[in-house]
Every structure is written in structure tokens, then in C-alpha cells.
Amino acid sequence: MSFPIHKLRKIKWQLFALCFLAVCLAWSQSPAELSRLGIFDKEKTPKIVVESFKWRAGGAGRRAIFSEVTLRNDDERDFSAIVLKARFSLKYGEPAGSTRGTIRKTLKAGETRTLKDVRLGIMNFDIDSVELEVVGATAASDGKPDHPLEVTAWDWRAAGQSVGTGTIESITVKNPAPEPYGKVEFVIVQKKAGEKIMTTSVPTEKIANARSETVYKEVNPGFIHPATDEIVVLIKSAYPVSRKQETLMRKKALDPHPEPDSNTPVPGYDVEVKKFEWGSGAAGSLGMVDYLVLKNRSSVRYAEITIAIDFLSNKKRVLTTNTFKIKNPPPPGGTRKYRNISIGILNVSPGKESVKVYVKGGKPARGGG
User: 306 and 355, same structural domain?
Assistant: First the structure.
């Protein structure tokens, strides 16, 4: 049975009009309503530039110190907390980790300000070069966090490793809001005798359920200073999720490697680690993978693949994770071998059968196939 062409065209224009009307209605909603609908009006990236800096001192086990840091605020807003990140490199350009810190100084719109004696946490290695950038800022008008979540309890047990690695057994988060929140990022404040030593941040994927308490188990805080005798857990950021996003996130939590449809790139399913041989490295030094074989069992062509290595305790708990990118992944249906791969600075000394290797993510090439 054939369908008149003029009626098909009429239906097409009616659908277009309905879609346009839906977009207009969403655009007219308040930020709170947009959040409830799962449509986010993300805050503009702070336009703060590091004009110059002077490196003072640092090294393995010591605090990174800049004698001067000059910041220029090209934004229209004032900022009261500015997050700086320092990236370190070895002599031949190999990455040597990073540190970050929050500057509790007000930087007004259009202002250029030079800060003295800026300290950005403990370093893992003696380095040859350093880069400094602004990775976040809090507007001076922001009096409260943009989420209702609250950390009500946590349980931390040190793992007893020489470099101070440990696992937070559980973190309990209370969400009084009528909608769930996802992409919860914790801030771990490390203290000794009540004085702050350093901070680390931990992003998570688990959803904080609406009007209830959610327990996050076995949270890996990354590097913990050996002198730490107390931690404080705070929430750095969290975002409301729509029903559709909540369903997708819960499915991902239940099955991290789902069977994809033919048009959906899923790196963790498409690309498989066929063989892996650990090379060398100890805590505080550069880790090396001796041999790696990847197989692309899909029809998707990838521009890069992200590999993760979990370092495990004797009880098979994740102590820390290193990630690295493969820039020339195997073609669709193909296999490729790699040798002598640098994975960055290690926080632990790996033992036999104490690592877990898997594909964490990937970036499809333009055109996809």
C-alpha cells in the first residue's frame, strides 16, 4: 500500500515544528527547571590566564613551591578560589605526575595579580621542567555549593604501603533532593595532627539516590602522604541526572562491557587486551610496560585508545591506577603489538600478578569506520 507523497511532506514539517517548539520551551526554562529536566546550563569556563611564574623548589617527597605566580582575570566575574595545576616532566619529556592546589585569594574582573610563595602539594619525583595552568575557579558570588549532597560518614583504613597508599572503605552521602545526582567528585583532605598536608580529588560514576543515603565502597584516593593520620572527605561537585541518564548509568554499572549495537562505539567491548607483560618500575619512578597486544574486534576505527592499569593489594583491592593512551590503535578487525610503553610515575611497587589491565576508553576516528 503506497502513501501519498504530499502527506509525507506534511507530516515531516509538522514534526519539525514540534521539535522547534520543544527547543524554544526548554530554552525559556529557569536553570532549576533545566536541571530537573536533565538539560544543564554549564557555568562558563573561567577566563583566568597564568601570565608568568617563577619556580622556586621541589623534588621527590617535597612540596612544590613557586616563588611567584602572576594571574590575569579576563572574565567578567570576580573569583575567590582559583585551582592551579602543575604538570611535571623529566629530562626527556616523560611525564612525572602533577600536583594541584586552591588559592584562596580574590581576583577581581580585569585584574592582574602576582601571588607570592604558592605551594601546590607533594611531588613524587625530581623533575626537569614544569608547566602551570588554571583548571578551575569559584565565583566570588557563589555562597553555597551547586548541589544538595552532604558527606555524613566515612571509614578509612591505611594499607600500610611505604608510599602511604590506602583505601577508603566507605563514604556515606546524603541526598535530600527529589532528583538523583551523578558524577560525584570527592575531595580528600589529608591531615597530620590536625594540620592539612595535601588534598586529592576522586571522581566517581555511582549515582547518589534521591531522598536517601548512598554508600560509596572501596574508594581509591590515589596518593596518600605517609605522614597522614587523618582524612576529611568533602564533595567538590555533583550534577543532577535525568531519568534517561540514570538508566544508562545504572546499566553501565551493572555491565561495564555491554553488547553494543553496530552503530555505537564501545571501546571497552570493541578493543581487547590480548597479551600484557609488565616491564619495570618502583614507587616514585617511571613505570614501563614491556609488551602489549591489542585486538580490535569491531568495525569501528579508533584514533586513540586509553588503557588503564589497576595496581592491587594482596586482598585484590585497587590501590592506585595509571592510565596511558595508544595513539595508533589496531584497525577494525586487526591486531597490533606495542613495546616499551611509558605509563607515568608509579605510586606503588607492583608485585607479581598484582596488576589488572583493561581498556578504559577510546576516541573514534573521524568517519567512524
Answer: yes
Alpha carbon 82 to chain centroid, angstroms: 18
Mean pLDDT of the chain: 76
Which pLDDT belongs to residue 249?
A: 59
Q: In 3-state terms, what secondary structure has residue 332? A: coil
Residues 120 and 196 in one domain: no
CA distances from 86 to 50, 96, 272 (A): 11, 11, 33
Burial 128-165 (b: 16+ CB within 10 A, else e): eebebebebbbeeeeeeeebbbebeebebeebebebbb
pLDDT in tens, 36-54: 333 333 345 688 889 899 8
State phi, psi for 232 to the nearest 5 degrees: -125, 130
Identify which of 105, 348, 98, 62 has the alpha carbon closest to the alpha carbon of residue 197.
62
CATH for 72: 2.60.40.10
245 phi, psi to nearest 5 deg: -65, -40
Residue 250, classed as helix, strand or coil, is: helix
pLDDT of residue 351: 66
Do the beta carbons of residue 159 and residue 103 sit within 8 Å?
A: no
pTM of the model: 0.37
SS3 for 11? helix
Return all residues near 329 (Cβ < 8 A) that are at least 6 apart.
271, 294, 296, 302, 303, 304, 305, 336, 362
pLDDT in tens, 291-309: 999 999 888 889 999 998 8
